[in-house]
């Protein structure tokens, strides 16, 4: 039985992940962490100041973190202090925070860290890479749309798209929205939409003369991210002590 603690247990992703863990044979939810204490599917949810106590008393195999960047860094450090494997879905890390996470994880615990746990997005990233390779002289525009409550922008998934484009096209300037006189140069436009309950849309437009190709992904339910994160949690326990990707989990 793989025992799991969820950080961000009472949030949109935390509650969805808890339900899927509860329905999964071989996985057991043994606790949660959130800024207010409570209960979730019969397990205790404790406040962040009690995370070490929780990890030591419940002895989980995996901590799944879907919180906010500052909180996730502290939760990741707590997991590494206690030898607990990690699945991190939180987005919005600064480059400095990424370096702190890498330093804490590598050689200490196995971790899967991904800006998007959906199988479809992991395939979509590969399609974007392939299109960029073949359409290097086309203009590129990235658009993402999410619900009104999303805190970080652009999304983690969009930032991963930009990393892929940089790898394939060289580092082009990023232009975040446009207003006024703005003649297009050799740049990548990045456009962020926030509204309602949009679960998560991403698209990459490759525009040439007389034609456009658009590669896009739309999530209809955040269960698609939660299922991927739970799959990563079942996979990560016992793996090499370094940062793995969701593509490693999927073997693609
Ligand atoms: N990688 C992926 O596939 C996905 C990533 N996300 C990311 O996951 C994160 C959470 O998203 P949502 O669940 O929609 O947000 P949310 O706001 O509904 O949930 C976050 C939860 O974390 C809690 N929290 C804050 N500080 C905490 C701390 N120190 N310790 C424990 N819990 C704490 C909040 O009280 C809240 O309940 C965001 O960064 C989002 O971008 C969301 C969906 C998919
Ligand atoms: O906050 C969200 O909701 C999502 N966040 C992730 C991101 O920032 O890319 C993944 C997904 O699009 C939903």
Automatic annotation (TrEMBL):
Pfam families: DapB_C (PF05173), DapB_N (PF01113). NAD(+) binds at residues 8-13, 34, 89-91, 114-117. Residues 3-117 form the Dihydrodipicolinate reductase N-terminal domain. InterPro entries: DapB_C (IPR022663), DapB_N (IPR000846), DapB_N_CS (IPR022664), DHDPR_bac (IPR023940), NAD(P)-bd_dom_sf (IPR036291). Residues 120-250 form the Dihydrodipicolinate reductase C-terminal domain. (S)-2,3,4,5-tetrahydrodipicolinate binds at residues 147, 156-157. It is found in: Cytoplasm. Pathway: Amino-acid biosynthesis; L-lysine biosynthesis via DAP pathway; (S)-tetrahydrodipicolinate from L-aspartate: step 4/4. The active site is at residues 146, 150. Its EC number is 1.17.1.8. One of its GO terms (biological process) is diaminopimelate biosynthetic process. Its main location: cytoplasm. GO terms for cellular component: cytoplasm. Keywords: Amino-acid biosynthesis, Cytoplasm, Diaminopimelate biosynthesis, Lysine biosynthesis, NAD, NADP, Oxidoreductase. It is an enzyme of class 1 (oxidoreductase). Gene3D superfamilies: Dihydrodipicolinate Reductase, domain 2 (3.30.360.10), NAD(P)-binding Rossmann-like Domain (3.40.50.720). GO terms for molecular function: 4-hydroxy-tetrahydrodipicolinate reductase; NAD binding; NADP binding; oxidoreductase activity, acting on CH or CH2 groups, NAD or NADP as acceptor. It catalyses: (S)-2,3,4,5-tetrahydrodipicolinate + NAD(+) + H2O = (2S,4S)-4-hydroxy-2,3,4,5-tetrahydrodipicolinate + NADH + H(+); (S)-2,3,4,5-tetrahydrodipicolinate + NADP(+) + H2O = (2S,4S)-4-hydroxy-2,3,4,5-tetrahydrodipicolinate + NADPH + H(+). Catalyzes the conversion of 4-hydroxy-tetrahydrodipicolinate (HTPA) to tetrahydrodipicolinate. Homotetramer. NCBIfam families: dapB (TIGR00036). Belongs to the DapB family. This is 4-hydroxy-tetrahydrodipicolinate reductase.
């Amino acid at each position: 039985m793989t025992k799991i603690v969820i950080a961000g247990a009472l949030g949109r992703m935390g509650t969805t992940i808890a339900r899927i863990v509860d329905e999964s044979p071989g996985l057991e939810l043994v606790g949660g962490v959130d800024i207010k204490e409570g209960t979730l599917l019969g397990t205790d949810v404790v406040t962040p100041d009690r995370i070490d106590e929780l990890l030591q008393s419940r002895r989980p195999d995996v901590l799944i973190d879907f919180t906010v960047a500052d909180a996730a860094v502290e939760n990741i450090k707590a997991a590494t202090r206690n030898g607990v494997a990690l699945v991190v879905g939180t987005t919005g890390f600064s480059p400095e925070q990424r370096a702190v996470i890498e330093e804490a994880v590598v050689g200490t615990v196995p971790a899967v860290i991904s800006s998007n746990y959906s199988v479809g997005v992991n395939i979509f990233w590969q399609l974007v890479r392939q299109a960029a390779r073949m359409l290097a002289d086309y203009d590129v525009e990235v658009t993402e749309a999410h619900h009104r409550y999303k805190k970080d922008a652009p999304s983690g998934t969009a930032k991963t798209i930009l990393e892929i484009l940089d790898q394939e096209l060289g580092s082009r300037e990023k232009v975040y929205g446009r207003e006024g006189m703005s003649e297009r140069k050799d740049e990548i436009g990045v456009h962020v939409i926030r509204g309602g309950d949009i679960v998560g849309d991403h698209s990459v437009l490759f525009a040439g003369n007389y034609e456009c190709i658009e590669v896009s992904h739309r999530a209809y339910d955040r269960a698609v991210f939660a299922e991927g994160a739970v799959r990563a949690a079942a996979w990560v326990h016992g793996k090499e002590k370094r940062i793995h990707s969701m593509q490693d989990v999927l073997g693609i």
